[in-house]
Amino acid sequence: MSEQLSIADARQAEAIGRQVVLQGWVRTRRDSKAGFSFLELNDGSCFGNIQVIASADLENYEQEIKKLSAGCSVSVVGLVKESPGKGQTTEIEATAVTVHGLADTETYPLQKKRHSFEFLRTIAHLRPRTNTFGAIARVRNCICNSIHQFFQEDGFLYIHTPVITTSDCEGAGEMFQVTTLELDKVPKTEAKVDFTQDFFDRPAYLTVSGQLEAEIFACGLGKVYTFGPTFRAENSNTARHLAEFWMVEPEMAFYDLEDNMRVAERMLKRIFRDVLEKCPEDMEFFNLRIDKTVIETLEKIIDADFVRLPYTEAVDILTASGEKFEFPVDWGTDLQSEHERYLTEKHFQCPVILYDYPRQIKPFYMRVNDDGHTVRAMDVLVPKVGEIIGGSQREERLDVLQQRMKEQNLEPEGYWWYLDLRRYGTVPHSGFGLGLERVLQFVTGMANIRDVIPFPRTPGTAEF
Amino acid sequence: MSEQLSIADARQAEAIGRQVVLQGWVRTRRDSKAGFSFLELNDGSCFGNIQVIASADLENYEQEIKKLSAGCSVSVVGLVKESPGKGQTTEIEATAVTVHGLADTETYPLQKKRHSFEFLRTIAHLRPRTNTFGAIARVRNCICNSIHQFFQEDGFLYIHTPVITTSDCEGAGEMFQVTTLELDKVPKTEAKVDFTQDFFDRPAYLTVSGQLEAEIFACGLGKVYTFGPTFRAENSNTARHLAEFWMVEPEMAFYDLEDNMRVAERMLKRIFRDVLEKCPEDMEFFNLRIDKTVIETLEKIIDADFVRLPYTEAVDILTASGEKFEFPVDWGTDLQSEHERYLTEKHFQCPVILYDYPRQIKPFYMRVNDDGHTVRAMDVLVPKVGEIIGGSQREERLDVLQQRMKEQNLEPEGYWWYLDLRRYGTVPHSGFGLGLERVLQFVTGMANIRDVIPFPRTPGTAEF
Question: How far apart are CA A35 and CA A37, in angstroms?
């Protein structure tokens, strides 16, 4: 009997001589005058195809096999042989080809020619069948797995923080509202929406971050991380913004900012190393077709120590650089992308962890330094992308935290439980957030963030 | 220098003789007349505590150590020694105890006495610090990790299907609406809501299932799984319903219903085996305090073959059983929980996979059998919980699928891309859904689903 094999396995030398069943989708068909056809078959298990040799002797050769075109689905039974061809180790000599589904060449939207990414977004249900989007799916899977393994091996607990929330982590942030009220007849009492008739008896939103809830678990169970979807209702139509994206947020009790930096650096290096090791074919494709620097960039980062630089020194470096920036550099304002890129690409030529930012530009939960002017914030900057991680040591002192909330006009009532964490058994703790899609953009070189998530949600777009 | 160690590691015999730093929260303090105090310390790394012996010679003994109570946070430096006490391998002789945060015994809500789970839900920010909820967090983490490993080892790709959606997988289902319109002044044109002013230019909802999108990826990349939050806006105040819960949905190209059953059975056994192996202390606790049958039940399932039983035969068995059921058994209606429990608990005394359900009670996407009356649906039933997995082979034939949609009054326009999967290179494929919280209830014996998710969302409740 023939054994079921993935094409990834069938392409290895070890498969030679085995009688197998392969199942997948035809990429191309080429007919030889010598009385057989070559099918390039892909099943998603790897970037490369396997070549199937289908002889004219097969009973359905004329009626079916010769009609196969890009997108058709087949099962192939046959013998794996050493391939005489270049760039492939094996090929399969078919003894049977079963056709499951055809794909009419007149109407099938994926033609042989190269399609623009813009066009492919309109057929997001078919784009996983292309080389580029198959590769993105595998690299995305690899990175997710790498993240989980990194934390699991280090004793972190994976926790699920809620998507539906009634609190707002950043104190600002544009949020989506979640409701079961009928929008064409919203109930009101005294001209105000009557939320007692809504599902949760109060206004509810989609979370912008699981950090505050992750702190709950860290402040009782030590080391935890979240990995889930987060949301921004910003009307940003850029290549770097999504309304729905995935975020990883580790949070560690008894970790200070230096510990936090070490976790962030180790995690990024682990991700990059895994991608290069486990997806070499996919990465070669990105390096060849999308951005000729991606592999070299990742390799350099894996070997380099990240620079640690206080914000204040960064401002000094930028001021003294003689560089012409569009935006002025001024202590007390956020750095712009051009400044971040100057630091990582020109000045240091490696990732930089900026820390100790001005108090007034950072959220209330970041720990205030003894100088009173700065807080224990950190941003990890990488070449080309800029900020890829943002984090901080959290303010664990109840009185200082309350003072900071007052400064930022936050109502303590909504944060009673967050304050309780400081009231009972408070501990120094730290954490950060990593946007999965930003990492994917960095790793693959893909210019538009809409192309590294299966089904992008952006203003006006929620198809599929 | 002392090395940082988790309490899980410090409790092992290998730690004896090492100079360590432990950090965590005090569970209890007991003072000996012999001039020292015993602290039970927990850091979340495992169920058990470590006993810290703090001598009166320590400089902060009177001022600080003797004030320690449940919930206080400390760092302890000391030597790990063999413990003369029963039920513990090691203990630590402190050379320094640093107090990070006290927890006023007058106001700290977690007192020594046992609290009801209802009460603990009102302090969900503190309940991870209890034995029960620490154990749940570790078992939940273990199960999530087990699920990822199971699929990763088998070549599945983890994919993220969207939370915000404009389609409704089940064709029915009560959904939450997602909007950026201001509810107190919803814009209207001709008495209808003007969705062109909403974020996505149309009504958008929270997903009830990622299945249809998972099918997209399976029908191009082979074997995939989703693992993410899903939502139901049902007004169900039961111990088994949540408005927000996590679901795992594998989807496999070229898999028929029998293949699907095999994946489901293997996955459940893998989860149960991992939990028993990796969380033995936590499971002993559940077995002792929550449900005295959980360990035995899991062990039996791991060793048993799941029974496969067509729905029609199940109806025959139930009808012939002589059992008095509250609801009548009738071919063509859904089985009730009492029927499912009779089959798994009394008749077979093991998990049962029911399959080939009546066409009229199942969704449009399930493959129609040759008999015309049944579809290739399957439900995995386990003792006590009943249905834990629901799945099916999907209808891959375009014409049959279109006919089924017509039967169920579904508009094909909304499903153009789903139909395209059958139009171009269609393949037999199958998948199922597993509710994470149901599994957790089954594994731990916890009666209420609100206690196995960090922050439950239910009608009227979205605190934290």
Answer: 7
